[in-house]
Amino acid sequence: MAVAAMLFPVLVPEAGAQSDLKSKVPSWTFSTDADEQLKQLEENPLLKRYAESRRRLDSLDRHRPAYHFISPEGQLNDPNGLCRWNGKWHLFYQAYPPEDKRQHWGHAVSDDMIHWRDLPLAIYPDPERMCFSGTTFVDSDRVLAAYHGVGYGNMVAVSSDPLLLNWEKMPDPIVPVKKPGEVRPYDVFDPCIWRNGDYYYALSGGRQATGPGGKLQPADWLFRSKDLKKWEYMHQFVEHNDYALVGDDGACPNFCPIGDDGKYIMLHFSHKSAGKYLIGDYDTQKDKFFVTGGGNFNHGPVLNGGVHAPSACPDGNGGVVAIFNMSSGKRIGGNSFSELMTLPRLLTLDDNGDLCIQPYGDIESLRKECVSVRDMAMPANREIVLEGVEGNTMEIDAEIDLCGARAFEIDVLRSPQKEEYTRIMFYFKGGYPDRTLTSRDSWSTWVSSAISLDNSCGSISADARPRITETADVLIGNDENVRLRIFIDRSVVEVFVNDRQCIAIRTYPVLDESTGVSVRAIGNPMRLVSLDAWQMDNIYYTSEQPPVSEM
By the 8 A CB rule, do 334 and 311 touch? Predict the structure, then answer.
């Protein structure tokens, strides 16, 4: 569980505040037959309520996104348990039902990771007070969900029906919460679950006082079981993690194989610096993860519109599909949707073992009207507003030949007089040099470029909270053009660079005319090789949400 308690304390009841732990949200037992499940869902009152809620909330908030996943009822927090089951993608998430604002596991399903359809809540609190974050594991003919049950322990629930509608909790937790006065070497926090050979493994994320001067650093403790009932504690799982900041923690771990060379990736969340990852080797004899690389998905502090907690699973081809929630960057109102999910991302490794990031899912299916620019000379140090390229729900695919320019700027969500704009900056060879590698033999080959996102002028609203400039390294070759895929969705901007890096930020323009796009070469002229800008379709139906059977 990430920062919901920190951001929204009203939603988290005090321990013991509710004597009856049974949720006040209605629940159902569904058929295990696929056709019958679809019929039941068409008449399900909660789904009808969700559809009405989406219509109502969309009319109340101009910043509510059109093609990023959002909760059907107000707020959400961490994504949980992303998996592929029976040919469909399943996303679970921290939901806050209005009649019982404790964390439940919300649930949505998709054929393409882009068009999502709501399903009823999956996991309800009881015996725990709240259902915090966790992961799933597809175990042959069933799906296992591991999550943190507040006040009870790390839990396992099992489902095997076609749409994962029915969940049965194991009677005993993986590890119970600590009793008063109990001393033990591990903590109980967000779990991750997988299987290797005869054993199921569960990782409990958290932190311990092993940093300089006894300060806190990330920790992840390993447990194993043969039957999901009796679990044994093993040891600290991660070795040689030099990629953490003092004060980070290892919340929301997601541990997956990646690539074809036996590497693994551990995505996780820090309550200091948000979304992060480690790459390394999984020693199955010692049951240890030896870290060889790492980095960030969020490039700044945890709050004010950053990339938060991950949920991830293998794509079946050596890659890992991941999705993250993003925090709000403005003062929260009663009808606000608050957080949203990023677009899904495909994570792979290049020949040097570095992480590559590109959009995932059938994004092209959302494209509507297109405006194109071809072979346009960009003079130095003069802002050019691109005529006809405008909108607040767009995808922009741009290729730029630097031609000697050392940097360039693209402004989006720009008002005509520039009272509001969100700035994208690219700095050629403006990032950190990689001094860890000996194979790169010249300065020009191992100095990264940098990409940044700045929302300090994104909104004139007093409710918007500017975020420090989000800046990330990306390695671009000397003779390589820069390709940016920019996704603009009302209050979120995501930028993918040459399929190697991604940065994202929340921004909140309030002027109706804040829809323009401009480009500026810095220092020297450059060439805009091509730019295509599509208006993007809405993945939600504003008149009537179709039944799951139409997917």
Answer: no
